[in-house]
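Hello support,

Our group uses your service weekly, and this is the first time we've seen a run hang past the timeout. The protein is Acetyltransferase (GNAT) family protein. I'm not sure whether the cause is the sequence or the server load. Input pasted verbatim:
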Amino acid sequence: MEIIQASTLHLNEVAVLFDTYRTFYKAAPDFEGALKFISERMEKGESRIYVALESDEIVGFMQLYPIFTSLGMKRAWLLNDLFVLEAHRGKGAGSMLVDAARQLAIDTGAGYVTLQTEVTNETAQRLYEEKGFKKDTDFYYYYLSV
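Update from on-call engineer: The timeout came from a worker crash unrelated to the input. Re-ran successfully.
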């Protein structure tokens, strides 16, 4: 298993995984929309996308967005998307992708990596906690749909 930063060479495969990831979270399938979205993030340099390769097959991906911490006056990273194909789970891809997120934070002098996951996604929660992430008990998160 190998983790590399995705490039436009990986665009179609990442878009397939991204669309599958979205449907995992109950969004309607939309490959064309997924392709456009991922393409724009790559072209504009608005996110970092990493892929997990197993025998030259992309079996998982992770997308992080740069954010900033005003109190810490540093960059931070939002680990927004992490997905491994079901047939390849349990082989270490998720763990290696999270390690890549940590390394990105170190390499860019970030203050932290933050993420959120569904309350029911206990498998992901175990992974994140094993990797040193702490569940936030001090703050509430709010959303405003517009």
